[in-house]
Amino acid sequence: LAQGMLAGDLQCYCPAERTPEDFKQKFPMYCPHCAQHMDDATLLQIHSAKTLYYPDGKFSPWTMDDSLNAVFEESQREGKRNVRAAAEMAWALEAIPGVDNLMAYESRLNYFITGKPWISICLYNVTKFDGKTIMQVLQTHPYTISQGVVTQNPFFQDPDIWLAQNAPEFLRRG
Questions:
Q1: Is the dihedral of CA 100, 116, 80, 151 positive or negative?
Q2: Any bridge partners for residue 14, and if so which?
Q3: What's the CA angle centered on 126, arms 146 and 4, to 5 degrees?
Q4: pLDDT in tens, 46-99
Q5: Over the range 103-140, which residues count as b (16 or more CB within 10 Å of their CB) and which as e?
Q6: What is each CA distance from 31 to 18, 19, 28, in whole angstroms?
Q7: What are the CA-CA distances from residue 63 to residues 45, 54, 87, 105, 110 (Å)?
Q8: Phi, psi (rounded to 5 degrees) for 102
Q9: In the chain, beta strands by DSSP E
Q10: Do residues 139 and 155 lie in contact, with contact meaning Cβ atoms separated by under 8 Å?
Q11: Listed residue (37, 49, 31) closest to 10, CA to CA
Q12: How does DSSP classify residue 13?
């Protein structure tokens, strides 16, 4: 996020294990030049998990498709611009209706990102999610970041394959 903020990219951040206030207070420690931009919504948008993922009280991959498209279109109104999104995913451990479709969304996100100046980092805390969920995360994400190193993920499955096998109702919008 720091690199993107300095480049003038739109940063979208969704905290779940910290408050937006905590993020705004601590982030400038890692990027002192970013301190002056923490309240500039043209550079940084902080969304709660509820506002971003389940605004009507239910999580839906289709609603997420629509919401992300709206964010992207708005970000491009004044010309091509990079978007960098990071989301802490601990909110998905809560009993939210529809959250069982989270991995379908994660797989579909690959359709959304392709060809766009958009980077998403989904932050799954491996000390909070069970092994089965982490394996599904690995199957739906083409890259992983471990100890600050980005690597191609050998467990990744193309969304056409993953969705056909695990969530065929989300393969095509009907």
A1: positive
A2: 87
A3: 45
A4: 999 999 999 999 999 999 999 999 999 998 988 888 999 999 999 999 999 999
A5: bbbbbbbbebbeeeebebebebeeeebeeebeebbebb
A6: 18, 18, 5
A7: 19, 9, 17, 10, 15
A8: -60, -45
A9: 10-14, 44-46, 83-88, 118-123, 143-146, 149-152
A10: yes
A11: 37
A12: E
Number of residues that this document lists for the chain:
174
- Rounded CA gap, 151 and 167, in Å? 26
Q: Across-strand partners of 10?
A: 83
Helix axes 131-140, 102-113, angle to 10 degrees: 20
Query: Is the confidence at residue 174, as pLDDT, over 80?
Result: no
> How far apart (Å, rounded) are the C-alpha atoms in residues 149 and 29?
21
At residue 170 the predicted structure's pLDDT band, cuts being 50, 70 and 90, is very high
Pairwise CA distance, residues 6 & 10, whole Å? 10
Structure token digits, residue 84:
């960098």
